[in-house]
Amino acid sequence: MKREIIQTLDGSTTIHIAEWDECYHSKHGAIQEAQHVFIKNGLSLFPNRNVSILEIGFGTGLNAFITLLEAKKMQQSIDYVGVEAYPISVDEVLLMNYVSELNASQESAIFDKMHESNWGEKVDLRDDFSLTKRKQLFEEIDDIDQFDLIYFDAFGYRVQPELWSTAIFEKMFKALKANGVLVTYAARGVVKRSMIEVGFTVEKLAGPPGKREMFRARKS
Predict the structure, then answer these.
(1) Can you say whether residue 210 is alpha, beta or left, with left for phi > 0 and alpha for psi between -120 and 50 degrees?
(2) What is the distance between the alpha carbons of residues 206 and 36, in angstroms, rounded to a whole number?
(3) Using CA atoms, how far apart are residues 102 and 41, in angstroms rounded to an integer?
(4) Which of 18, 42, 14 is nearest to 26 (CA)?
(5) pLDDT tens sequence across 34-59
(6) pTM (2 decimals)?
């Protein structure tokens, strides 16, 4: 499918898939969405501790990069696993403007290393941040009690409803440790019902710019 780089309303870039009219991030602001959904309503729940994170949809690396930047402020040590079935190309990575938009020039080499590192190998990007990228279909995930936090950032239900199924959320539930948390930009009723069916307690929160609501789910 044809992919093009576009600029979102907060100035940060994302990838647009023309055939689906779907973007990797919100057109209203890629960085704003990541900070609101995954940092404010996810990562910030785990200050001053070790945090294991599973990202569903590694994509451009934006969520991982922002997590690395924020972890230092929150005195966290992060073990990050990013799952992606169809990695983006080096040319696309070079067109992402996250380093400049986040005023993170001092971490530019780390952003590059995120994308240059080998799939399937754990790499230490910083003393407090390790990354493992897994080239894997979401339905192949079989982790058990491994993660404190899941960033569920799959393509939207409109274009890939199978990624939001009860079967997928059952895998997410099993992958989380007790009291683990899953955050996602989604807020559809069918998604909430699937989460509840597998055992999650779901709360509806205010969404990022351009979106009224989002979900946060807990494994109790």
Answers:
(1) left
(2) 9
(3) 19
(4) 14
(5) 999 999 999 999 999 999 999 999 99
(6) 0.97
